[in-house]
Amino acid sequence: MSQHSSAQEDTPSPNARMRSKGPTPYKAVLRSVSPDYPTNMEENIHELPPEYPVYYFFYGTLTAPATLQRIIDLPEEPKMRKAKLIGYALAKWGDYPMLINGDHDQEIPGYTYIVQTEEQAQKLAYYETNAYKEAHCLIYFVDDEEPVKVLGKTFVYAGDASALLEQRFDRQLWLHQMTGKLV
């Protein structure tokens, strides 16, 4: 056996060092999702422990810094980064855009902001109403800054996307709005 190979055996690999500290947040997310996660958001309901700060992706009224500032009570307009989501589509619910599952290559442009506290996240959820639910997503940045992509959160349509697209009564969303939870 050469000296080189015995030195390698004595030095733990970077992966072994990471395993000894427990799973990284990224690995915890990967372990909590189903294998078809990117193509099947409807069945992808996995609660992760809330960790702040966290990036939120916005695609509607919250892309305006002054609106976001007002909603989460910031002392000044927030710095937001241009970003996109892949695999989603937008549909209209009256005047409001709703994020729904899309084709695997569809892109939704928007902006991100790093939400600092659970209290800020609750204010966002209150603003978005029961017509939306919070969802985990992979955010891709479209600027030249780091990081280039992150796990984050966004708000998606809480009802039946097919009813929304067909512009018919959405019993699922109506029940959610009346009872405060999806059935």
CATH superfamily descriptor of the domain at 54-180 = Gamma-glutamyl cyclotransferase-like
Share of residues in helices: 25-40%
CATH topology term of the domain at 54-180: Hypothetical upf0131 protein ytfp
Spatially, the strands of the biggest sheet line up as: 1-5-2-6-7
CA gyration radius, whole angstroms:
20 Å
Q: What gross morphology would you assign?
A: globular
**Regarding CATH, which class of the domain at 54-180?**
Alpha Beta
The overall pLDDT, averaged over residues, is 78
Percent of residues in beta strands:
25-35%
Low-confidence stretches: 4-9, 11-22
CATH architecture of the domain at 54-180: Roll
Termini separation comes to: 63 Å
Order of helices and strands: HHHEHEEEEHEEHH
Q: Can you summarize the main beta sheet?
A: 5 strands, antiparallel
Structural category: alpha+beta
**How many strand elements?**
7
Number of helices: 7
